[in-house]
Structure formats: C-alpha cells, structure tokens
Write a structure and sequence with these properties.
four-stranded antiparallel sheet, single chain, alpha+beta, 56% helix
Length: 509
Amino acid sequence: MKKQTIWILTVLMAIAFLGLLCIQIFYMKNIAQIRYEQFAQGVRQSLVAVTMHLEQDETRHFLEDDVRQVQTSAVASQFLGERQPSTGGIKYSFTTSTGLEADLTIKGNLNEITNLQKSNNLSAHYRSLQDTYRDRYLYQKGVLDDVILNIISKASDRPISERADSARVATYLRQELDTLGLKVPFEFAVANHNGTVLYKTSDFGANISDRDNMFVQTLFPNDVTRQHSYLKVYFPTKSDYIFSSVSFMVPAFAFTLILLVIFVYTIIVAFRQKKLTEMKNDFINNMTHEFKTPISSISLASQMLNDPAVRKSPTMLQQISTVITDETKRLRFQVEKVLQMSMFDRQKATLKLDEVDANAAIFNIVNTFKLKVEKYGGSIEADLDAMDAIVTVDEMHFTNVIFNLLDNAVKYRSEERPLQLVVTSRNPDEETLEITVADNGIGIRRDDLKKIFDKFYRVSTGNRHDVKGFGLGLAYVRKMITELGGDIKVESEFNSGTKFIIILPLSKN
C-alpha cells in the first residue's frame, strides 16, 4: 500500500471519528438542556404552588379569627340578656367559587312553613323569603368584605415566620416536587427584600457552589407593601439528576474512544509496516550488491585458473587462492548476516549456554581484530581489569557481539584522526560484569541514538559512501545481550566518538 493511500485513509477515518464525536456531544448536550428546562419548569411550578398554599393558609387564618370574634360577640350578648333568634330552621351548606364553604340557615318553625305552603298566600310568603335571603346574602357579603380588608391591611404586618412556617414550607415543597416526579433533596431559606436570611435549613449555604442550582420565588406577591420576602431553594444534586438522563451515552463514548485507540494503533502499525517494507527493500538491494562483489571476484579467479600460464606460476596460484579464500569468507559472513535476520522473528533464540571467561574471549577477539585496525592506521587496546569475568553465555554469539561493535567502530571511523579503539572490562558490583567498547569515530547524532538498535536502521554517514551493511548488526547485538539476561547502553557525541556499555550477570557457579 502506498504511503499516500495510508494518509488518505487516515484523514478520512479521522474526519469520521471527529464527526461521530461531535454528533454524540451535540446530542448529549441537547438532552441535558431539555432535562434541565423540564427540571427548572417543574421547580418553578412547585414554588408557585407553595406560594398559593401559603396564601390560602393565611386566608383561612383570618376567617377563623373572624369566626372566633363573632362567637365571642354572641356569648357576650347572651350574657347581657339580649334576645336571640330561635335556633330552629332549615340549614343549607354550599361552597363558593373560590373554594370557601358557607352555611345558610332559614330560621322559622317547620309547621308554620308547611301551613304557609298550604295557604293561598304562598307567593307572598315566597317573595318575603327571597327578601330575607337577599338581606342575609348582603350581610354575609359584608362580613367577607371585612375579612378581605383585614387580610389586605393586617396580613403584611405579621412576621414572615408565622405567615410561612418553615415546617409547612418544607412539607408543601416536598409534596409539590414529588407530585411532579422531582424526587431530589433540597435546602431552602427565606430572606427579606435586603437579602438577609430570616431562617434557613441546617445545610443551606454550606455547600452552595453553583448558583445555577438556586431557584427564587417571591412569597405573598399580592401584598400591598413592596418589601417582599423571598423563598430560596437550592438543589445540591441537580447536576447528578441531569446527568442521570444522559448516562446512557457514557458507554457510547467509551466504545467510540476504544475504536479511536484501535484506529490510531492500526495507523501506527501500518506506518511501521510500511517503513519495515522499505527497509527490507533497501536490505535486499544492499544484500545483492554485497553478494555481487565476492561472487564476481571468485568468478574472475576461476577464469584465471583456466589460463595455462597462470597455472604454471606458483605465485599467481597463491594469490588466486588467497583471493578465493578471502572472498569465500566474505560471502560466508554475508550469508551469516542474512541468517541472523531470521532470529528476530523468533520469540526466543536457541542458545548453547556455557560458562565463559569474558576476559579471555575479549583478548582473543582483540588480537584477531588488531590486523584490521592497523590496516587503517589505527590502534586497539584491551584494559581487562575485571577480577571476576566468568559469565554464562553462548560463546559464538558473545564473540559475534563484540566483533560487530568493533567492526562498526572501523566502519564509522573519522578521516580526520587515527582510529583508537579501547575495550575494557570491570566489576561495578559483585554480581555483574561491565564491558565497554569505545572509539573516537564520527559519533552518532542525538536523533539517531534512539533508533540505532532498530532492525534495518542505518545511521547516515553524510558524504561517505564506503560504509556497507544491512542495518542488522546493532539490532542483533541488543537481541543477544537481552537473551543472555544483560543490558546494553550507548553514549555518543557527534564528531567525538561513541561508547557501548554491556552489562552481563556473573555466573552464579
């Protein structure tokens, strides 16, 4: 798949996920807004109902007070010996349009009424009764008007704690909210027109952090005075109540985020595979070039052997034999490099572990490698100061690790100064062995330090084109050290040199 195609798919998927998230957020926001408006409307409706209940209670209070006054006046009249009307008669009970109950009594003797009905003057008596009822109605209307005047003139003078008792307010609030299905806890307070709290519940004001959760209603709004009192109601769990209506969207968000993570991971893997494919193509091209040179040399040497003059010259035969041997070794080394690549696809490498004296192994490697270093005018030293250098390793792979590090030092040597290689060993503690391979070559840039152990990765060498390789050496080194239970670190400064530090556990035996 082309890189451009991957980018197009990435952009399209990103737009799709962004659109999906925006739709979910917009939908959830709308649901929460509708839920909040319903909640606010229900609360306001409940507060208005509470105010009406308080006004009805106050009207009932003044009616009862007026009845008590009438009863007191009647008792006083009887005590003074005033004539009272007879208690007999017909009593009618009715309810007015405003919800007030009233009693109307038609006084008189039932026998007289019966006789009147039988007489020929029934119509005259009927008109007389109508006049009596009208007079009685006007009298009762006057009484009610007096009660209303008392409410208008005296109600606002009563203390608010009597007009709106806290227990009644709490009861009315709970009843009205439950009726509308708003079964949420609340706190309330009653304040005067200056904002001074007259009384409140115990937790009101202690946990008020969001003024949007506060609802205010004017108490007794029909009072003549303008110095009204206010009922303030606070709902501490309003946010939880609103969130409960959109909680079903949480799983949708979670699944969307999971898909987003999977998508991002897939894109990363796709780019890594793309990069790996490019590296493998470079590897194949480089490998072809590396194989081509020794094969050409061996082919040329074999053609020269067909020349009779060459076969007669021992010196020429020796030179041709040396060329074939060297190129065969070179070809075998390249084949081993290719075979090493297969180890990276295994979860666990197959190792033949033995107890090895690392100092002795490193000493032999340095002596073997000395000729190659001296060929480029350099020098190599071994400072093997470790008192205990017995480690449990695969000797062949351990030798290849040290050889690869030394070979890299030669490849990336500086043309401005003679090559200097130093291999050291020491015991930083009683359980580990530290091996250091240091050079004074071209060094490694900081950006490349994090990638040098990646498979097929090769550090740029600038204008130099004589550095050959597959990008497998350092990846192989790290894998082997890790398989042996050790660790490897690198320290480098560009144009100054590089130091590789290998730490291996000492043999327990």
